[in-house]
Amino acid sequence: MMKENVMDNAADQVTDKLTASETLSQVDTSRRRAMKQLTALFGGALSMSSISLAVQGYQAQKDIPGRTGKILNPQQLNLLRILVGLIIPATETPSASDVDVHGFIDNQLAFCFSKEEQLAFIRGLEKLQSTAVKQLGQAFAKCHQAQQVDLLNNLLSDLEDASGDFDSKDKDFFYRTKSLTLLGYYTSEIGATRELAYLPIPGGYRGNVPFDEVGKAWALN
Amino acid sequence: MTKITNKSIHIKTQPLEYDAIVVGSGITGGWAAKEFCEKGLKTLLVERGRPVEHKKDYIGEGVKTWEMPFRGQVEKALVEKQYPVQAQCYAFNDATKHFFGNDHDYPYSTEKDKPFSWIRGNQLGGKSLLWHRQSYRWSDFDFNANAKDGYGTDWPIRYKDIQDWYDYVEHHVGISGSVENIPQLPDSKFLPPFEFNTVEKRLKAKIEQNYSDRKLIMGRCAHLSKPAQHHLEQGRGPCMARNECQKGCSFGAYFSTQSSTLPAAQKTGNLTVATNSIVHSVIYDANSNRATGVRIIDSETMQTREYYGKVVFLCASTLGTTQIMLNSVSETFPNGIANSSGVLGHYLMDHCYNAGAYADIPGFEDEFYSGRRPTGVYMPRFQNLVDKNPDFLRGYAFSGQAYREAWWEFGGKKGFGVDYKKAIQQAGGWKFGLHASGEMLPRYENQVSLHATKKDKWGIPQLHFDCSYSDNEKKMMQSAADTAAEMFEAIGLKNVHKYTNDRPMGIAIHEMGTARMGKDPKTSILNGFNQAHDIPNLFVTDGACMASSAWQNPSLTYMALTVRACDFAVKEMKAGRI
Ligand SMILES: Cc1cc2nc3c(=O)[nH]c(=O)nc-3n(C[C@H](O)[C@H](O)[C@H](O)COP(=O)(O)OP(=O)(O)OC[C@H]3O[C@@H](n4cnc5c(N)ncnc54)[C@H](O)[C@@H]3O)c2cc1C
Ligand code: SF4
């Protein structure tokens, strides 16, 4: 990991670092776990809040048919919409697709990820699509929800995938999608304030609070 | 409180001779300015970066996640262009990035295969805005360390020399913590400690039952857990436990130049602040053997100018100060000012934060906490105090916390769908981690120097780093990982994982040692009062002065040394020796 020069390998280190999505990353190496712990401890990268005066925050958009993303074509964006909705579906609160997490991910990919990461993500979506076509004879979007869920369970399965269609890259893709979905959902207003407990100015720290008193996980932990 | 406006601090020319010039407005420079001003000296505080006004310029503070353009992540193009090194720091995010130095404008180079991550805060307030506020006294175990094992040079001071000065700064700063009577970690003058959570309490009891040499205490930090009257009078209020301090805190609840030392200095009417003023070098007069002032390059106009003062305090951070000194060459000092010993730039140290362990704690699903405590739990050093560790010299502390897994930790877990969403809503299991903070030995070969040809955009020679950890630090880290994991197994934690990593020097952000104190002018730059052996009116009170690194976070000690040096300098001025 030690390389020639800090400035030279900086790009590497940046992808390696604890940006929110990396923290959310599926790659469960001990290194990253450790980093994650450090961040959790220091609270730095995770108590997220910011502005960059020049750039507008990502604004959720309506799903009009044929909508195109910044990185994704209409078909890919639609597939992602279904995927994030399967990961975080509607309960008493809206689903990830209801709050446009797919649009958020597309935007995030465009600005915060490298070309290779963008391509890997698109490859993952296309692979899911082609596998649906191969195994179920139709586009992922057209499959029944139960079929979609089966396909994803199949992808995630620890056992050697019987069909041999999915490999570790596909797993990586799905975990990354999950991580980005969580980021998009739980930092949205609905995800943070309605689905979870939200306390921007706690007024002090109390170390012994019955879970029931809060009743939900904290959006900012 | 006097309001600091950009106009009043933004001077362009100044023919006056000041009583004192302080270079750098971070933790140490803020203190030096306050002390001199309160002692009646007309003081000029020189800062290379832009002015940052308390409250008004904390543009990341309180912004809601969904209002952030990338929800806290920083645009890749911006990171690559301006912050490739700074982005390695855990505290770097979209809400804090403007308080980090710009790597593009402040370049440096490193020796092949020896990376160094130089994390900087270059604005009014320096890294005082960014620091994590962990504050621990050093003890005689630390001041005796060099003499005992022969690494580095003996400290010219002992604990008794700075004990009262710790008291003095702690009173003003406000340090939250608990009285523990631990010989290797003397108690501070405390405000109340933050609370342990239920799980930490249980772990504390178990650890202390099992290990008579170890204590788990609440992390000591520069936060107003319960402000005293004099804190309120500084315009500071109680800590709200947001743990978003590095964005800036309008409550003034953590110590920074802006919240604490600058307003105090400003109140005296004796302070002038020159921002956007890069100190190029110290002006030296060979006839009187005095530093007579500083040469400035205006960061915006590129114009140069000079400021004059009776005494010059360098507080530009360890490496900033070293760069200035190396660049201050004269016939008398061809290798850098006050460098007759030749050790300037050598003995660079950082801490080693490259090991630890974490584990699951079964149960306690009914327990939670409220608020985001801005500190963790702390296990002071317990190695090489009485018994000798066979693997390494000196020692390390552990810090950590117990917490329930939050939504962001579910990305790597199995599942999706309704049950998954519910599980996230119900909060994850409890986790506990302990992470080492290890001492680094002072070694001559760890050096920064001026690059022979490379310059920054203002024409100042760049720093070149040639340094790395030694086997002692590596063995210490391995031992720390093993020790933490054994301890976790012994107290019944589950899924114990230990780790070591090879993150480069610099990333612990405790660089120090490059203009060290010592008893012998032939082997050190400064005497026990931070005064240059060679030049009586030149002082260095930032981390460059440190003769060893100890294992505690260093800034509280920098503060104590700074105020002690100010007191000494003023007495010397009054006595006519400066
Ligand atoms: C994220 C983070 C967490 C940290 N956590 C802790 C902690 O918990 N506990 C702890 O003790 N320490 C911690 N530190 C370290 C702490 O911030 C430093 O030890 C401390 O700020 C050093 O004070 P200083 O005055 O020497 O330097 P700084 O605070 O860095 O101030 C130096 C100032 O000098 C200015 N300067 C530099 N060169 C020039 C020049 N040529 N001309 C004019 N001005 C110049 C800089 O712009 C800067 O404003 C942390 C640091 C960071 C970044
Ligand atoms: S935790 Fe305390 S010091 Fe930090 S931002 Fe909140 S109120 Fe300010």
UniProtKB/TrEMBL annotation, chain A:
Highest taxon of source: Bacteria
InterPro entries: Gluconate_2DH_su3
Protein's name in the database: Gluconate 2-dehydrogenase subunit 3 family protein
TM annotation in the entry: 38-58
Keywords tagged on the record: Membrane, Transmembrane, Transmembrane helix
Name of a matching Pfam family: Gluconate_2-dh3
TrEMBL record, chain B:
Coiled coil: none
Keyword annotations: FAD, Flavoprotein, Oxidoreductase
UniProt superkingdom: Bacteria
One matching Pfam family: GMC_oxred_C
Residue ranges constituting the Glucose-methanol-choline oxidoreductase N-terminal domain according to the UniProt record: 19-351
Domain Glucose-methanol-choline oxidoreductase C-terminal: residue ranges: 442-561
InterPro entries to which the protein is assigned, alphabetical: FAD/NAD-bd_sf (IPR036188), GMC_OxRdtase_N (IPR000172), GMC_OxRtase_C (IPR007867), P2Ox-like (IPR051473)
Cofactor: FAD
Family note: Belongs to the GMC oxidoreductase family.
Name of protein: GMC family oxidoreductase
Organism phylogeny: Bacteria, Pseudomonadati, Pseudomonadota, Gammaproteobacteria, Alteromonadales
